[in-house]
Amino acid sequence: MTETIPDAAPDLDFDLKVLPKVSLHDHLDGGLRPATIIELAEAAGHTLPSTDPVALGEWFRESADSGSLVRYLETFDHTIAVMQTKEGLFRVAKEFVEDLADDGVVYGEVRWAPEQHLQQGLSLDDVVEAVQAGLEAGVDAVAETGRDIQVGQLITAMRHADRGQEIAELAVRHRYKGAVGFDIAGAEDGFLPSRFRDAFTYLAQHNFPATVHAGEAAGLDSIQSALVDGRALRLGHGVRIAEDITIEFEDADEAGADADIFDDEVSDTIGMVTLGELASWVRDRGIALEICPSSNLQTGAISGFGEGIESHPLDMLYQLGFNVTINTDNRLMSGVTLTDEFELLVETFDYDLDDLLELTLNAAEAAFLPLEEKEALVEYINEAYADLG
Ligand SMILES: [Zn+2]
């Protein structure tokens, strides 16, 4: 990380951990506890870069931050290696839920790719069931501590592989047993969602929702394909939709070349904002953007907009009325929690409680939940925020 995450929100004098949160984009194989990796690796005979939990955690963060895609991808070799048995999958899923609850998450969607967990002979159905059992055990363990959390699986296909149809059928087969949606992940550039057009059509015919990673490592073509071929109701990251937005200052001299049109101090010099047709579609139709601020900085997804987290277009998108949600992506690799990401926004963009509430309600409303459950979630979040105010 090139930016340091502040320890506490400067303008909010309480621990943001207590805020009820909704997590829509968090990978199961990117959120393991280092100590658990060490124990499972020992049992599996898998060699790790370190067998000290603190050093291993640092190794993950440094590798993810190295700027080397090879090193970044190597981190997942280690987590996936210890998730090849029912016991390993169960434990990782259970602890994942407990860690989300400790972070204040009350509803979470957990994404992962079953096809990556078959190395020791388990079937696709076996691994989905093992993860579901772990998630349910996590929910029970959280309930025993007097808190509530609800979780669902986002069944993911790897976009460089060719199992899209099989994975789509797997997701639909488990729709009443924990699966709430479908996604494709992995190498975005060069692997457009159109490769999985048939699988997405199958999902649509079964009225099964999809979110699609797009607009992270690739640009507008990838987003267009996610929406058209993938029929995406949400975009994984989607941050590069900002490339379809142009801002021209009416008086460039007055505004200054790098003036922030949304900064109060320069509000007299409002720029002309023009949205392309794709950006208009995403904004006007309320397609949710699953923004992961720290991850976007690490992977270079936002490098086209400037350096540092302050150049992340999420604030511009939010101010323009896009359906922005905030997520973690890979808590282990980025070394973050959702609470950390909220603190980062408070520190960087001066967000207050109203902003955090709006971002959280955006996520609740974009959740792949039935309407009644979504309304109950929204009500719960509103009441919790009202109690704080
Ligand atoms: Zn992701």
UniProtKB/TrEMBL annotation:
GO terms for molecular function: adenosine deaminase activity; metal ion binding. This is adenosine deaminase. GO terms for cellular component: cytosol. SUPFAM superfamilies: Metallo-dependent hydrolases. InterPro entries: A_deaminase_dom, Ado/ade_deaminase, Metal_Hydrolase. Keywords: Hydrolase, Metal-binding, Nucleotide metabolism, Zinc. It comes from the Bacteria. The keyword Lyase does not apply. Residues 20-383 form the Adenosine deaminase domain. Its EC number is 3.5.4.4. It is an enzyme of class 3 (hydrolase). One of its GO terms (biological process) is inosine biosynthetic process. Its cofactor is Zn(2+). Belongs to the metallo-dependent hydrolases superfamily. Adenosine and AMP deaminases family.
